[in-house]
Amino acid sequence: MKRRYFGTDGVRGTVGEGVITPEFVLRLGYAAGRVLAGNQTSGRPTVLIGKDTRVSGYMLEAALEAGFAAAGVDTMLAGPMPTPAVAYLTRALRLAAGVVISASHNPYQDNGIKFFSADGNKLPDATEIAIENELDNPLACVRSEQLGKARRLDDAAGRYIEFCKSTFPNEFDLRGMKLVVDCAHGAAYHIAPHVFHELGAEVIAIGNQPNGFNINQDCGATAPDALMRAVRANHADIGVALDGDADRLQIVDGAGRLYNGDELLYVLVKDRLAQGGVGGAVGTLMTNMAIEVALKALDVPFVRAKVGDRYVLEQLMKHGWQLGAEGSGHILCLDKHTTGDGIVSALQVLAAVKRAGKPLAQLLDSVRLFPQHMINVRTPADYDWQADQRLSAEREAVEQELGDSGRVLIRASGTEPVLRVMVEARHADQAIKSAERLAGIVKVG
């Protein structure tokens, strides 16, 4: 069944438009509360609500809380809290669900609502569809004696800090390391620096002064230039960049070199191999081909999922594997957490560096990323690119020329009438020329 409101990562949009309004979020809270109450076998369900640092979070939190209360569901308010922290606390506190008010890496004008189930995973499809169906019913209210109550979870940050530290090997610490930690003026501003400091590192925090409007603005995992400059200026060993809700990670070494999620996945797989074994790894359609080639050389099976950490998780669960990632920095270590976690993933990379006794660059000295060139072509709304025989023939010709040394990826945008044409090859000029050939065939809108 096609969803009307839920996307791959909850409900998201521009504040004040469409679904991100107080009225809709109130109804969403009520509908979700009705579904959760119906699934509860005994007692009153309790939901944890966390948010990032956007100014709109106050408004949406109040609307959600009112909706849950009207449905007879209690709420615990955690305040600004990373998305993976809400997943962890929901599971640790044995709650019915967790809710995060965040638009992740988007600018402050956007916001969203995403849910976690009691086990710390994203809601099953059936539950999301049940909530959407409930939204068709009128907003009502339980009797006064059944109304939900709200209370503040004062020790949420401390609980999560201890959890993050517990994922780092007991035999290691970070003493003697100087780290720059960029919190993107987001939900981890009061958490991430403490995690690394309490493990012994000298921490220089940037992007840790949120004002409601500066989340992800020229900082964090989506704008790593700020981190690269800070690492060089402070002569740091490593830089860690998170995004607004701290589920993405980018890392910079002391030389100022940036490492994306593809490269960090390879580092983690190699580290797990040294400890015993790895069943396989999951990337996405956008994962650099060099990673696939390098993993094949290690005899590690590799599977590509659709773009989106939700789909990476689906493939990991299907194959019973533990490690997956997107190049954007969503990294899943299912032996440590149920969802992507920027802080936990950074700790796993630092543990790999400690265990190997080598700098990050040396751990990747056998991997040379293939150049990728992408062209976004605006197309007519009714353009069926898959039925375009000229494009199909040209794609086949390009793929034959690339052979085993490159690949073509063509996919439609899910949010606008744009066709994304990407070519990956061992040489940049070949990737550029091939992408331009294909883009020239596409019907332009």
TrEMBL record:
Enzyme category, top tier: isomerase
GO molecular-function terms, A-Z: magnesium ion binding; phosphoglucosamine mutase activity; phosphomannomutase activity
Key words of the record: Isomerase, Magnesium, Metal-binding, Phosphoprotein
Post-translational modification summary for this protein: Activated by phosphorylation.
Binding residues for Mg(2+): 104, 243, 245, 247
Reactions mediated catalytically: alpha-D-glucosamine 1-phosphate = D-glucosamine 6-phosphate
GO BP, one annotated term: carbohydrate metabolic process
Record carries keyword Phosphoprotein: yes
Segments forming domain Alpha-D-phosphohexomutase C-terminal: 374-438
Cytoplasm in keyword set: no
Cofactor: binding comment: Binds 1 Mg(2+) ion per subunit.
Record-annotated Alpha-D-phosphohexomutase alpha/beta/alpha domain positions: 3-136, 159-256, 260-366
Active site: 104 (phosphoserine intermediate)
One GO cellular component term: cytosol
Cofactor: Mg(2+)
UniProt xrefs under SUPFAM superfamilies: Phosphoglucomutase, C-terminal domain (SSF55957), Phosphoglucomutase, first 3 domains (SSF53738)
PANTHER family membership: PHOSPHOGLUCOMUTASE (ALPHA-D-GLUCOSE-1,6-BISPHOSPHATE-DEPENDENT) (PTHR42946:SF1), PHOSPHOHEXOSE MUTASE (PTHR42946)
Protein name: Phosphoglucosamine mutase
Organism in which the protein naturally occurs: Pandoraea terrae
Lineage, uppermost ranks: Bacteria, Pseudomonadati, Pseudomonadota, Betaproteobacteria, Burkholderiales
